[in-house]
Amino acid sequence: MIPIKEPWELVVMRTAGRKLAEVVARLRERLVVDMTTLDLDRLSEEAILELGAKPAFKGYKVGRAVFPATLCVSINEQVVHGIPGKRKIKSGDVVSLDFGLIYGGYYADTAFTVVMGEGDADARRLVAATEAAMLRGIALAKVGGRVGDIGHAIESFVRPQGLGVVTQMVGHGIGRKLHEPPSVPNYGKAKSGDLLRPGMVLAIEPMITLGTDDTKILGDQWTVVTEDDSRSAHFEHTVAITPAGPEILTRLS
Ligand code: MG
Predict the structure, then answer these.
(1) What CATH number has the domain bearing residue 173?
(2) If you measure from the C-alpha of residue 218 to the centroid of ligand 1, how many angstroms do you get, rounded to a whole number?
(3) Range(s) of the domain holding residue 185
(4) In the chain, which stretches have pLDDT less than 50?
């Protein structure tokens, strides 16, 4: 069963989303070459706590693995779930930041990718296409549509550009839990899957590559990289389905 949020729950989720968007704005301002990924993690954690919320990923468990940080920092061929550490961010790096918070018992989840410095044309093309793909997916998160419409919009936009779509990880419902039904793949058929109804809240998050669709997990049990070492980008918003259309909760309006 896909949880349907009551209007009061959406009020709380709007506040949670706005707080997360404020942290994104701060990170975008502070992200510079030569800082370490751990510096970024500390910045995000401080900002979340200052806003009266709690980090959503720190302590998150998959099987026996416990995620140790507030932020996932994934660079170049790393797709998602990179663990912050001593690595310094370099000019030309494709840096994806993914993180969430809990506020008032509800989760918000977001991600964005930046090319540090000028980068090369492929990096810029990848990042622009991934963000545009997310927005195309979000545009179809509307009452009467189906989950498959979202993935179809994403896939049919990026494949003709010669880009890969990560299929081993998908978007998800979100609310009282970080991951709720339904799964929201970034591929698929239009008019397939669960019917979208008012009060559903989805994390829509295309992970797009310059090469293969396939990924593998590194020995740290978290970091997901592309199978062919091609670079990857990731954008994500938490989106409420409302009678007035998709409402992006993790954006400063
Ligand atoms: Mg997510």
Answers:
(1) 3.90.230.10
(2) 19
(3) 7-248
(4) none
